[in-house]
Amino acid sequence: MFQQSFPIWGSVTVTCRTFLIDFTGGGDEEILRFLETNKFYEKPDSRVLMVGRKRKARSAIKNRTFRNNINTLYLGLQEGAIDRLISESRTSTVGERRISQDAHEFQAGVETREERGFEDRVSIYSGCPYCDDGQIKVLMQGSWSIGSKIPSKDISPIINEVKNLHGYLMRIISIAFTPYADYIQNKDGPGGIVTLLDSLDKRLIEIFAPVMNFSFVVKSPPDMSFGSRLPDGSWTGVHGAIYRKEADFTTSVGPSSQRLEIVEYERTVPVDQLIIVSLKPQPLPQYLVFLRPFTVGVWVCIVLAIMIWGTTFWLLQRVRSNFTGEEPITFNSAIFYSWTVILEDPPITTPDDISGQMLLCWWLIACFLLMSGFKSSLVAHLAIVAQSEPINTYRDLVTQSNWKWGIEDTLLTGMVIQYFSQNVDPDVRYIYKLNEKSSPAEGLKRVLEGRFSFLISKNRITTIIAQIYKKEVGETQFYLGKKGYTVASAMGWGVRRGAPFRPYLHKLISRLIASGIMDYLVEDVVHLKILQSKAEARRHQQQQQIMEAKQDDLLTAESEDGNPQVLRMVHMMGVFLVLVCGLTIASIIFCVERFIQRNSRHNEKRCSD
Q: Vertex 453, ends 447 and 458: CA angle to 5°?
């Protein structure tokens, strides 16, 4: 009779759908099976008008096929009226004659069927969602005679949204995802009832519960996961509970193309950006502080300038000696002459010729400017400890030498995987290729060990750091990257498809977002958790230990009383290393010279013999 795959929904642009279902001719089970196959229960806003026998009104309205519909009317006819209508409709001429006779009798005010004792009254029934302990309650709206006008005052108006759930026990499935959802697992363990802790979702549920008049119970999934689709089409985790209709909605989860096939999302969480967590920039080694005033390029240019000036000076003096007959300066002496000038200790004697004096004059000016810049920069580097460059962007991360990174394991699902694996930026794909999946606690531990960064959402990591390292007073050793990356469009509650309460829930959530209250709630939850962690840290009396550790830090640029810092061995170690290297090189050259002289004397002695 029915094609099970027949598209009953028509164009997607149609916003109002009304179904007229005739149960008077039988075939009830086949009709209901057809509607169930086409997922009629996923369209709660569809309007249903059923016509059938009065005794079947209750069972029809409460049928599972219409469990989510909020506008359901049933016209119940008496048995005799249905039998007579069926018999009269067999012949069109008879039916037309009776209808014409009925209209004539009504207009003329003569005696109607009801006055003649026929059972021609129609009873009107409607369904009230959640009115019967969370189930549909069948309400009697009234009745009227077939030959009279329909009493519109007895029929309830069309319902656009369900606002009152009449104390319905809302089944919520949740997985901890601080600061959006947090709870304590009860004795039942995974899959059992949990007690919500202060979080965004807890506050939202407590706001909506009295407004929509529902109670709630929160459970965790048995496998403690957000859920993914299995090869057989079933689902795991919180989405599996929604798929099996074991829960009405979830706490904050992320959408994906597959998940959207089984749930409808209500955005509750503002966009939370992905950031890079690393150790705070560390002080650079102080034994190289005397090299930091200039970059490597500048140092190379200075060495080349010394060599070029010394060579030029030697050539000019060599040419001059050809004309004057004086003994020319040696090349080594010319190079050492340029060194002594830049070290602000020039020889007492100066060139006699004007060309040599001009060359020396400009070299003195250049050396003065170089040494002025070197001294001022060296003082600054000694007063303020230089630190390594912070890691803020993907480019900063991939350019680090001998560096590793990880991404939070709960993020590597759905749209986040698509963001990394299909991104046009090669740095993003490279990060995903070499990432080491870690839990937040494990990732932060590896960050503290050094040469490791962790990618996680900003609000989440701020709360987690406050909770895990709650015994630390003041700032932690973690550096949160300044650059944020939008990975997912939003997070929100996953509502089971066809839930009658979803339109009103959507309206309430939209009001909170539009008014800015949602952003305030997120910031307040994060701020409160940080304050609680700091209060607990003070109870553990850790402030004194941290202050002592800071006082023992040799790399502090300036003491608290403002006195300048005395240079220690850690600052001057580089100078002594240069001295040691110089002595070592000089000793090697001395040994080479002695070896050459010894061989030379030995050869001369053999030749003389």
A: 100
CA distance 108 to 111: 9
Q: Is 609 helix (H, G, I), strand (E, B) or coil?
A: coil
Q: How many CB atoms lie within 10 A of CB 263?
A: 24
- For 566, what's the count of Cα atoms within 13 Å in the CB-facing half-sphere? 2
Spatial CA neighbour of 42 closest among 218, 219, 240, 243: 243
Peptide bond connecting 179 to the previous residue in cis, omega within 30 degrees of 0: yes
With b for 16 or more beta-carbon neighbours within 10 A and e for fewer, the 562-579 pattern comes to eeeeeeeeebebbeeeee
pLDDT of residue 435: 87
Strand partners, 151: none
Cα–Cα distance measured from residue 487 to residue 256, given in angstroms and rounded to the nearest whole number: 12
* pLDDT range class, residue 212, cuts 50, 70, 90: very high
Of 466, 474, 441, 476, the closest CA to residue 456 belongs to: 441
**Per-residue pLDDT at 214 exceeds 90:** yes
The two tokens of residue 241 are 């509970």
| Residue listed under structure tokens 């859920």 | 227
Among the listed residues 197, 198, 168, 180, the one whose alpha carbon sits nearest the alpha carbon of residue 250:
180
493 DSSP β-pair partners: 252, 266
What percentage of residues in the chain have a pLDDT greater than 70? 77
Q: Is 203's pLDDT higher than 90?
A: yes
What is the distance between the alpha carbons of residues 35 and 21, in angstroms, rounded to a whole number?
11
Residues 6+ apart with CB under 8 A from 154: 124, 141, 142, 144
Percent of the chain with pLDDT over 90: 13
CB-hemisphere CA count at 13 Å for 28?
13
Q: What's phi and psi for 236, nearest 5 deg?
A: -110, 175
In order of 103, 154, 183, the CA distances from 149 in angstroms are: 12, 12, 58
From CA 106, how far away is CA 146, in angstroms rounded?
Answer: 11
Let me know how long the chain is.
609
Exposed/middle/buried for residue 544 (C-beta within 10 Å: 0-12, 13-18, 19+) = exposed
User: What would the DSSP string read from start to end of 18-83?
Assistant: EEEEE-TTS-HHHHHHHHHHTTGGG-TT-EEEEEEEGGGHHHHHTSGGGTT-SEEEEEEEPHHHHH
